[in-house]
Amino acid sequence: MTALLTVEGLRAGYEPGLDIVTGASLALAAGEVLALLGPNGAGKSTLVKALAGLVPVRAGRIRLDGADLGGLPTHARIACGLAYVPQSENVFATLSIRENLELAGFRLGRALRSRIDAVLSMFPDLVDRPERPAGRLSGGQRQMLAIAMALLGAPRVLMLDEPSAGLSPRLVAVVLARLDQVRAAGTGVLLVEQNVAAALDVADRAMVLVEGRERHVGPARALRGSPLLAELFLGAAA
Ligand SMILES: Nc1ncnc2c1ncn2[C@@H]1O[C@H](COP(=O)(O)OP(=O)(O)OP(=O)(O)O)[C@@H](O)[C@H]1O
Ligand SMILES: [Mg+2]
Fold first, then answer.
1. What is the pTM for the complete model shown?
2. Who has the most CB within 10 Å: 4, 39, 144, 150?
3. Strand order across the beta sheet in which 21-29 lies
4. 53 C-alpha vs ligand 2 centroid, how far in Å?
C-alpha cells in the first residue's frame, strides 16, 4: 500500500502533561476508507482534531503525500489537502444549502460554481432545493451537506467525526453509502464511527483505538463478528 496519509507515534492532548492520544500510528491510502473505532473516550475525536491542527501535538509525525504537516496551522493543512468535518454544528443552520457551499468554497474563486455542481452531483439528496435553509434539512441531509462542503476543495484526505451520529438506521446506511463516491474520486477517508456494523460495511480497513493508541488494525471484513469488538464495546471478557 502506498500511503497518502501517515501518522507515526502521535501524542496529543488538551492539558499540559496529560496525553489523550498516547502514541498512535496509522496509514491511509488514496481511495481507501479507514474506519476509526473504539469505546467512548478512547481519543478518536482528539486524534482527528490533532491531525487537523486543532489540538496540541506533543510528539510524532504527520505526513500527507510526503509533506510534513506537523507544526502547520489548520488552514495550511487544509491547503495541503486535508479536510475535517466535526461531529456537530458543521453547517450554518440559517443559511441555505447553496449559501453554505458558497461560504465553504469562497477561496475557490472562479472554480466555485463548477465545484459546487461537482459535489452536488455526488449528493443527489441535496440538489432538489438548494435554497432550503440547512436548519430545515433532515439530519442525514445535513451531514451530507457538511461532507459536500468539506469536499469542495477536492481534498486528498477527508476526516469525518461520526457522520451517522443521531441518524436513524436507514439514514446511517444512506449517508455512509455516499462515501463510495468519495472513495471513487480517489480521496482517502478517515471515518470515526460509533456505528460499528455500518462503518465496517463501508470501510476497507478498520483501526480500533483504545486509550489513545491502536489496539488492532486490519481488513474491515475480518473485524465483523470479531470477539475483540464484543470485548471492547460490550465489556465482555476477552
Ligand atoms: N476539550 C477538551 N478538553 C479537555 N479534555 C477533553 C476535551 N475533549 C475531550 N477531552 C477528553 O479526552 C478524552 C478522549 O475524548 P475524545 O472525545 O477524543 O474521545 P472519543 O473516542 O472521540 O469518544 P466518543 O466516542 O465519546 O466520541 C476524554 O477523556 C475526554 O474527557
Ligand atoms: Mg468522539
1. 0.94
2. 144
3. 21-29, 3-12, 57-64, 67-68
4. 16
